[in-house]
Recover the amino acids of this structure.
DNA sequence: ATTGGTCGCTGT
DNA sequence: ACAGACAGCGACCAAT
């Protein structure tokens, strides 16, 4: 139970009128979609219920049940996307889903959490929840506010600064890949970052063995998936599914990746061995992350633990870095007598509520402290933006 | 009416 | 048959 006292308790401004209008817009679109969906389904049903939706799509309309199941046929996004060209109803359902999600989870839920005394939203940043040392955010979770879709981005416009202030957002760029380049001591990757290459383009160049300038958008997209996949211990099967290529071809990409970045492969094997020996792995600053089940006889459970052993040091070190930066930034805000407030942390991003007169000073300060929080074998870059709401700040 | 599991989806 | 890390939360649904 949170109690508002004179202690520092910043919160972030929220424009409830904006959310209310958005909610109405979404409602209108959702209702229109419902009508069309019922027409194709030849009757009303609860679209939110996976069970009922599955019955309509797969039993009544006879669409090929993509696959996947647990208690029925899966109606998840990746399944439906493959059915989109089979029947008009599918894309309508996908659109309905995304809008219903935005309305229910964000535009309707956020106003309920506005504090009556401050008129602001005061999330809880939990410091002892995650396995890796990241913070988590709850009541509400402000670390999963939409940004990817056009409709979703409108929700960010409802996050606003104090009157006369601006919001400033500072993002680490590719922090986890840089951490991995450092921890694995992979020269090829480090050189890319030192040259400030487009890292996904460079990876594509290595994997497909062509000049960077000849890398197509599609090749870059694939390389990007592989770069993130490596961080999570993705296998050939999942990569193939993600890129819509065969498992065999996906394996070629992964082999090629490790051929070009051999130290990354070595890093992965070393972390597994470390976990087997100690039942934990360590972050950049020496924090221990417990790795359960690493010696399990069940191959599936053991594989999961091995992926954790690789991912924890990377994700955990990135968490170390931003925590050091947060402390350093806060100290300087105090030391320099600024009135800017640090209001959000989103894993690789910090958001500040800043008086317009302090904007330049804060920007310089934040960039300096975030980029020098630790010294790696690669530079750490921070990109900064500002605006009159959270969307504009990006 | 409340609780817990499942499914699905948002972010990094 | 399985297959991608870390989270939080809403809707549904069955059990209490």
């Amino acid at each position: 139970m949170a109690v508002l006292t004179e202690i520092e308790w910043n919160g972030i401004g929220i424009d409830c009128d904006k959310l209310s209008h958005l909610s109405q817009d979404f409602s209108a679109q959702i209702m229109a979609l419902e009508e069309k969906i019922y027409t194709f389904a030849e009757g009303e049903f609860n679209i939110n219920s996976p069970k009922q939706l599955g019955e309509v799509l797969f039993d009544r309309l006879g669409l090929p049940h993509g696959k996947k199941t647990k208690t029925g046929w899966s109606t998840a996004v990746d399944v439906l996307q493959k059915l989109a060209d089979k029947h008009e109803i599918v894309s309508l359902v996908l659109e309905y889903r995304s809008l219903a999600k935005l309305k229910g989870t964000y535009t309707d839920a956020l106003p309920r959490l506005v504090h009556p005394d401050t008129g602001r939203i005061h999330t809880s940043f939990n410091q002892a929840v995650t396995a890796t040392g990241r913070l988590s955010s709850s009541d509400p979770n402000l670390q999963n506010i939409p940004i990817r879709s056009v409709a979703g981005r409108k929700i960010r416009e409802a996050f606003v600064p104090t009157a006369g202030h601006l919001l400033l957002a500072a993002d680490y760029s590719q922090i986890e890949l840089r951490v991995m380049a450092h921890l694995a001591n992979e020269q090829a990757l480090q050189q890319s970052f030192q040259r400030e290459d487009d890292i996904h383009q460079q990876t594509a160049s290595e994997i497909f063995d062509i000049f960077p300038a000849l890398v197509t958008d599609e090749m870059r997209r694939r390389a990007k998936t592989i770069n993130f996949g490596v961080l999570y211990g993705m296998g050939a099967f999942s990569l193939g599914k993600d890129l819509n290529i065969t498992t065999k071809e996906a394996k070629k990409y992964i082999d090629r990746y490790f051929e070009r970045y051999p130290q990354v492969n070595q890093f992965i094997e070393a972390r597994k061995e470390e976990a087997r020996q100690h039942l934990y792995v360590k972050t950049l600053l020496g924090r221990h992350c417990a790795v359960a089940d690493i010696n399990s006889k069940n191959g599936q459970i053991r594989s999961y633990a091995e992926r954790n052993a690789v991912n924890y040091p990377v994700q955990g070190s990135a968490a170390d870095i931003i925590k050091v930066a947060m402390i350093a930034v806060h100290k300087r805000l105090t030391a320099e007598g600024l009135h800017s407030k640090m209001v959000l942390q989103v894993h690789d991003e910090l958001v500040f509520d800043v008086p317009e007169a302090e904007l330049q000073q804060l920007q310089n300060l934040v960039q300096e402290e975030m980029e020098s929080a630790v010294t790696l074998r690669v530079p750490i870059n921070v990109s900064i933006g500002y605006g009159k709401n959270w969307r504009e700040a990006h």
Notes: The first strand of chain A starts at residue 12 and ends at 14. Residues 1-7 of chain A have pLDDT under 50 and may be disordered. Residues 299-335 of chain A form the longest helix (37 residues).
